[in-house]
Amino acid sequence: MGRLHRWTFDKIREAGGLGVFCHPYWTFGAHYSLAEAYIEHIFATRPFDAYEVIGGFNQTEPEANHLQVARYHEERARGRVFPIVGASDSHGCERGDLFGWYYTIVFAPTAELADLIDGIKAGYSVAVEALPHEQARPHGPFRLVKYALFLLREVLPVHDELCAEEGFWMHRHIAGDPTAAAGLAGCAGRCGRLYDALWGRAR
Question: What does the angle CA 107 – CA 95 – CA 124 come to, to the nearest 5 degrees?
């Protein structure tokens, strides 16, 4: 199994992706999906690029995420520091369940895939739990968690409102609404202008 995991991570990197060690404490049937000795081997040899601290589990199955967070802190205490991510595991955005509940905030110069991967590998990411009707909880290094909490409180809600309106007009455009093109034009570039204003960037 160890060789299969290493081969998989190597192939992911060859394709330009990010190899993530996902939900080691997922419960399958009446037991964990991976043996503890195997999990220890993966952490000791670290064939992965990032560890899934927060994964996509229903609210009735919180144990896996609790253990994944606890294991992250234990590994750091042992001197094993590695990048982390949060993953929704929602298998799509149209179903509602899990989508938007778990995700990653990456501190990167752009949203291009290469910059996101580089940012995660460099340790500039936090994993976020944002369960319905609960305050979002980022996990990761203290400095990044503190900054993420500020963004979640002061910046990202404004960003999300702008994106929601743009998404509304995109949906109307697909549905054949003749006024949607004008609505989309009015939304163009607003997120970029927001970030330029907040961080003093000149275009």
Answer: 10
Whether 28 shows a pLDDT value over 80: the answer reads no
CA distances to 8, 32, 129, 151 from 54, in Å: 21, 16, 7, 19
* Whether 116 contacts 106, CB under 8 Å: yes
The pLDDT tens digits for 185-200 are 999 999 999 989 988 7
Q: At what angle do helices 63-77 and 36-45 cross, to 10 degrees?
A: 40
97-134 in b/e form (b: 16+ CB < 10 A) is: ebbebbbbbbbbeeeeeeebbebbeeebbbbbbbeeee
DSSP lists the bridge partners of residue 28 as 31
pTM value is 0.88
In one-letter notation, the amino acid at residue 81 is V
